[in-house]
Specification:
Number of domains: 1
Strand content: 25-35%
Bound molecules: iron/sulfur cluster
CATH topology: Alpha-Beta Plaits
Number of helices: 2
Order of helices and strands: EHEEHE
Largest sheet: 2 strands, antiparallel
CATH architecture: 2-Layer Sandwich
Mean pLDDT: 96
Distance between the termini: 6 Å
Length: 61
């Protein structure tokens, strides 16, 4: 199963991952990225990983 790691220390809360994920996995919680959707729906496109401007997201799987 896919695992998504978000480095909250790096995250700037820019919202790019929220806008990029085709299945709406992400939201912003206290101005930082958070997993709010059902991770089971992740299609492992890695768009979030490649679009995060500070490299805070790692998609494992
Ligand atoms: S794209 Fe990266 S920096 Fe921007 S909110 Fe998402 S995890 Fe944080
Ligand atoms: S890999 Fe694709 S589907 Fe999965 S969380 Fe990232 S953008 Fe969304």
């Amino acid at each position: 199963m896919v695992e998504i790691k978000i480095d909250i220390e790096k995250c700037t809360g820019c919202g790019t991952c929220v806008d990029t994920c085709p299945v709406g996995i992400y939201g912003l919680d206290n101005d930082k990225a958070a997993i709010t959707g059902n991770i089971e729906e992740c299609v492992v496109c890695r768009a979030c990983e490649s679009s995060c401007p500070v490299g805070a997201i790692e998609v494992v799987g």
